[in-house]
Amino acid sequence: MNWTSDFAYAISLFTADGCLSPDRRHLEFCSKDKDQVENFVKCLGLTNRITKKARGREKIKKYYRVQFGNVRFYNFLCSIGLAPCKSLILERIVIPSNLFSDFLRGFFDGDGNFNVFKYPESQYPQIRVRFYSASPKFIIWLHKEIGKRLDVSGFISKGNRVETLEYAISDSKKILNYIYYSPNVICLSRKFEQVKSYITRM
Fold first, then answer.
1. 68 CB contacts (<8 Å, ≥6 apart)?
2. Between β-strands 155-158 and 163-167, what pairing exists: parallel, antiparallel or unpaired?
3. 155 beta partners
4. 23 partner at 20 to 30 Å CA-CA among 38, 149, 170, 180?
5. Long-range contacts of 70-77 (CB under 8 A, 24+ apart)
6. C-alpha–C-alpha distance, residues 108 and 129, integer Å
7. What is the C-alpha to C-alpha distance for residues 41 and 48, in angstroms, rounded to an integer?
8. Domains in the chain, please, with CATH?
9. Beta partners for 133?
10. What would the pLDDT profile of 27-46 be if each residue is shown by its tens digit?
11. DSSP output for the chain
């Protein structure tokens, strides 16, 4: 496979919201954000139609998805760390080091969160960048990879079903400037609008 910034971004989106069928051929990417699915399709050069689906026992089809079959791509994803029913067993993703910022941006768009708040005793806004995963080993790996590249600390908290990797204000700004290193990078526009005022590189 030919690694590019867009390809690394798509791999990360799939890491967050993709599904590998047990038949070892078919793949599905699903999101509430149509823009997210359109970005995924664009990055991989897919021509498959985007459809809508319901999840679980829901009746309303409010999720967008693209389905496709590709044995070579399926095997490639497995070779870099993905697997069917990956949510709880994911450990790490093997990607080129120079494309980690694109991978992290994709994971932020897929399984990340940005929050602004104020403490009652302070007039200054606080910001938090967070990443979520149901796999403890993966969130530990992500924590280490971010730390060694950006010299940030962050901390992991455990919930009932997911682990949360969270960064305070100064570290959050470092991460945002790292992943949005250019105004032209592909990203989820909704999240970019939330964070753009904290990005100083542009």
1. 26, 27, 46, 48
2. antiparallel
3. 166
4. 38
5. 70/25, 70/27, 71/24, 71/25, 73/1, 73/27, 74/20, 74/24, 74/25, 74/26, 74/27, 75/24, 76/1, 77/11, 77/14, 77/20, 77/27
6. 9
7. 8
8. 5-86 (3.10.28.10), 100-198 (3.10.28.10)
9. 163
10. 999 999 999 999 999 999 99
11. ----HHHHHHHHHHHHHEEE-TTSSEEEEEES-HHHHHHHHHHHT--PPPEEE--TT--S--EEEEEEE-HHHHHHHHHTT--TT-TTT-------GGGHHHHHHHHHHHHEEEEEEE-TT-SSEEEEEEEEES-HHHHHHHHHHHHHHH----EEEE-SS-EEEEE-HHHHHHHHHHH--STTS---HHHHHHHGGG----
- The overall average pLDDT reported for the chain is 94
Report whether 44 contacts 10 (CB < 8 A).
yes
* pLDDT tens column, 134-184: 999 999 999 999 999 999 999 999 988 899 999 999 999 999 999 999 999
Q: Which two tokens stand for residue 38?
A: 């359109």
Tokens of 128: 């938090």
Strand 26-31 versus strand 63-69 pairing type: antiparallel
- DSSP-derived pairing of the beta strands 51-53 and 63-69: antiparallel
Structure tokens at 145: 């990879």
